[in-house]
Amino acid sequence: MSRTICTIFFLSTFYNCFSQFEKDNFYSGKAITLRTNPFSFLQRDAGIMIGVNYRWHQRWSATLDPKFIFYAVQSPMNSTGPRKPLGVRVKTDIRYHIQNVFIAPELVFGYTRTKSTAEFGVNCIGGNCDYYTLQEYTEIKKEAGGAIKFGFTGPIRKNNENWRLELYTGIGVSFFDFKEKGIPPGGSFMRPPTHENGLGTMDEDEPNITIPFGLIITYRIK
Q: Which end of the chain offers a freer environment for a tag, N or C, measured as fewer CB atoms within 10 Å?
């Protein structure tokens, strides 16, 4: 959903931004810019992304984009209540610029603790359990991965070069590790938890294909 909204928003402003772009002025010296994703609150593990980019050369810059996760848009299939995530996901890259186009290798690291409520069977043998209980438990998700991405940047308004728009996409691989804590003694999930992203089920300790995609608003502060 967030990717669809980002794409529609970008296409609606694409002509305005890049028709104003001046090829002879794509680099104006060393710069520090603040960055945010206006659609980060629509992602599955939602929150606020506030990052920074430092450009020290006509061709080179580096970016650090931490997202602070503190709520969820939807609950998993095995949950009987709202998910309560708390964590951080950090992306960093080094960019090579060709006028308003860039290509960059990206690293991704994430750590999220999510509280959910699920139904457990206790002391189950052959499908028969002593009793059933609803209980809150904590899921710990760790992520480590990388990607290659490319993107475009351009001014939002010609008379104010400090505000710019960025759109990027790419392809990458991430590894995930999931652990559950707070399960009742002798308990087992009546519906085992599943982990999904926009491309399907996330497999633990195996390479998972990812497609980074984002629409970023930046503001130059120096």
A: C
CA–CA distance, 144 with 28 (Å, rounded to integer): 35
In sequence order, what are the residues at sequence separation of 6 or more whose Cβ sits closer than 8 angstroms to the Cβ of residue 187? 120, 121, 122, 133, 135
172 secondary structure, DSSP code = E
Measured in degrees and rounded to the nearest 5, phi and psi for residue 77 equal -60, -35
Burial 170-199 (b: 16+ CB within 10 A, else e): bebebbbeeeeeeeeeebeeeeeeeeebee
139: containing domain: 2-220
The CATH number of the domain where 8 resides is what? 2.40.160
**Residue 5 above 70 pLDDT?**
no
Q: How many domains does the chain have?
A: 1
Tokens 């290798």, residue? 105
Q: Nearest-5° angle of CA 73, CA 75, CA 70?
A: 50
Residue 200: CB partners within 8 Å, gap ≥ 6? none
Q: Alpha-carbon distance 182 to 160, whole Å?
A: 53
Q: Summarize pLDDT for 86-107 with one digit per residue, the tens.
A: 999 999 999 999 988 999 999 9
